[in-house]
Amino acid sequence: MSQLASFPENLNVAVIGASGAIGAEFVRQLADDERIARIHAFARSPLHPPGSKVVSGAIDICDAGSVERAANTLEQDEKLDLVIVATGILHRGDAVRPEKAMGDIDSDAMTELFMVNAIGPAIVARAFLPRMRRGSKAVFAALSARVGSIADNRLGGWVSYRSSKAALNMILKTLSIEYARRFPDAVIAGLHPGTVDSALSAPFQRRVPEDKLFSPAQSVGYMLSVIDRLTPADTGGFFAWDGASIDY
Questions:
Q1: Which tens digit of pLDDT belongs to each residue from 16-52?
Q2: Domains in the chain: how many in total?
Q3: Sheet harboring 54-58: ordered strands across?
Q4: How far is CA 207 from the centre of its chain?
């Protein structure tokens, strides 16, 4: 049974960030989907393909040349039906940590988060959106985060992460307006995966209720269901793992 029944058959998919907990799970579940013909799994270091459908490739989303080279590995006339950008950074050892107060703001750490969480996905969109199929449903989805919602911010803190994800949301919204003029069947959207048991969330799981801490398999299953339900009317939107719309 396919998780993407609203798409045509023989889908071509690209997963950017295929070595992370969520990206790898997207590759695994999509490889088991009967409607999927090929999956381009891009990561900093090429993966060991988990099946005959999977084509492994290298990408560094912070390097525009690397992103262009990755897009150019597709066959000349090959079109993509689904692109998933599953990259992101919240912390990196002691060098990058979520701020508890404004006095913790560090310009180098903030620059790194904006590069990975906002600028990188924009570079990916520039290279991969022109490779998407016309005339049938096509989706470009990037992982955002509920804490990137300005309307939902009631606790403060985490200024760099919140701001970088808010910037990503604006990038997706802006691109959706331009893209809809040429690709009326396409959807560009941000997805909130929930709190997933992964290296990204590991230091911050203590107060997460047990039923709200998802395994990668749960989260990806939920998000594929959301992707399957998206229509062109949803383009530019920001959606939670359960399909609920999140205010920017």
A1: 999 999 999 999 999 999 999 999 999 998 777 777 8
A2: 1
A3: 54-58, 36-43, 11-16, 82-85, 138-143, 186-192, 238-240
A4: 25
Q: What is the mean pLDDT of residues 81-92?
A: 94
Look-up of token digits 């090959």: 78
| Distance in angstroms (rounded) separating the CA atoms of residues 232 and 137 | 8
pLDDT of residue 144: 97
Residue 182 lies in a domain: yes
Both tokens of residue 84? 């998933």
Cβ pair 189, 234 in contact under 8 A: yes
pTM reported for the whole predicted model: 0.93
Question: Cα torsion for 46, 190, 81, 220, to the nearest 10°?
Answer: 60
- The domain in which residue 155 lies consists of 11-240
3-state secondary structure of 186: strand
CB 226 within 8 A of CB 239: yes
248 found inside a domain = no
| CATH of residue 116 | 3.40.50.720
Q: In this structure, which amino acid lies at residue 119?
A: I
Q: Centre a 10 Å sphere on the Cβ of residue 206 and count the other Cβ atoms it contains.
A: 5
The mean per-residue pLDDT over the stretch 219-246 comes to: 97
Give the model's pLDDT for residue 211.
Answer: 62
